[in-house]
Write a structure and sequence with these properties.
The protein is mostly helical. Helices cover about 90% and strands about 0% of the residues.
Length: about 120
């Protein structure tokens, strides 16, 4: 059976290992800096887009304010029309009532006249 000899770690090798580890971690740090920079640029782009969208929403709000004003005008016209219609229906109602009173009066007068004739004929 053959045994493999284990190399011993000398101070020089440990120092070399430490340097390599430091170099690798420096590269990892550089990558993180690059990733952070990319993320920062991405967030800046997102912020810019939100500013654009915010402007679009402001424009939409202004347009909705105009629409609301138009609806307010339409509501005022409908209320005016409703008042006018109520006055006209009220006038029609009065005319119909007076006409009905006239018809009832004529009918009663006719019956009274007829009754007078009948009584006079007797």
């Amino acid at each position: 059976m053959q045994t493999m000899t284990r190399e011993s770690w000398t101070d020089e090798r440990l120092d070399e290992f430490g340097k390599r580890m430091d170099e690798r971690f420096d590269r990892v740090d550089e990558r993180f800096v690059a990733v952070r920079q990319e993320m920062k640029q991405g967030f800046e782009q997102v912020d810019e887009r939100f500013k654009e969208v915010d402007e679009q929403f402001k424009e939409m709000d202004a347009r909705f304010d105009k629409v609301d004003a138009r609806f307010d005008k339409a509501d005022a016209r409908f209320e005016s029309l409703q008042r006018e219609m109520n006055l006209r229906f009220e006038g029609i109602h009065k005319s119909m009532f007076h006409g009905l009173l006239g018809i009832v009066g004529v009918t009663v007068t006719g019956f009274v006249g007829l009754a007078s004739l009948v009584i006079a004929q007797m």
